[in-house]
């Protein structure tokens, strides 16, 4: 079996890959497609010696390191790791941890939204 998902980004201010991954997860869940876990994604970067979560376009264009991470939150598994610059190992670990925590926060939020949506559908059915 194969599922194709196409995402059209109408306006972007950074983090489009992560936004598309999170949107695809929501689309699959909303369609009732069984999944072992939800995939969530978040980016983090390092600019002027400061780790930043979910870079916007200006921060991303400033030339600092940018790491995009996708995870299966319940399974605690990394499904995506993209990095566009070399980083010292300690800096990479800091940025990776920040992005992973962002993914976990998004997973918690998505689960809450899906649960609320399920409750509303249940109430509508009576």
From TrEMBL:
It comes from the Eukaryota. One of its GO terms (cellular component) is cytoplasmic exosome (RNase complex). One of its GO terms (biological process) is nuclear mRNA surveillance. GO terms for molecular function: RNA binding. Pfam families: RNase_PH, RNase_PH_C. Residues 2-34, 37-102 form the Exoribonuclease phosphorolytic domain. Belongs to the RNase PH family. This is Uncharacterized protein. It comes from Aegilops tauschii subsp. strangulata (Goatgrass). The lineage of its organism: Eukaryota, Viridiplantae, Streptophyta, Embryophyta, Tracheophyta.
């Amino acid at each position: 079996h194969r599922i194709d998902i196409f995402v059209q980004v109408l306006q972007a201010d950074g983090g489009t890959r992560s936004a598309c991954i999170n949107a695809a997860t929501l689309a699959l869940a909303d369609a009732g497609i069984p999944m072992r876990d939800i995939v969530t994604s978040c980016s983090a970067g390092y600019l002027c010696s400061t780790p930043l979560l979910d870079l916007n376009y200006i921060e991303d264009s400033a030339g600092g390191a940018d790491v995009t991470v996708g995870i299966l939150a319940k399974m605690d598994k990394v499904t995506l790791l993209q990095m566009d610059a070399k980083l010292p190992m300690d800096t990479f670990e800091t940025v990776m941890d920040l992005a992973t925590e962002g993914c976990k926060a998004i997973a918690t939020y998505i689960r809450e939204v899906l649960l609320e949506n399920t409750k509303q559908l249940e109430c509508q059915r009576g």
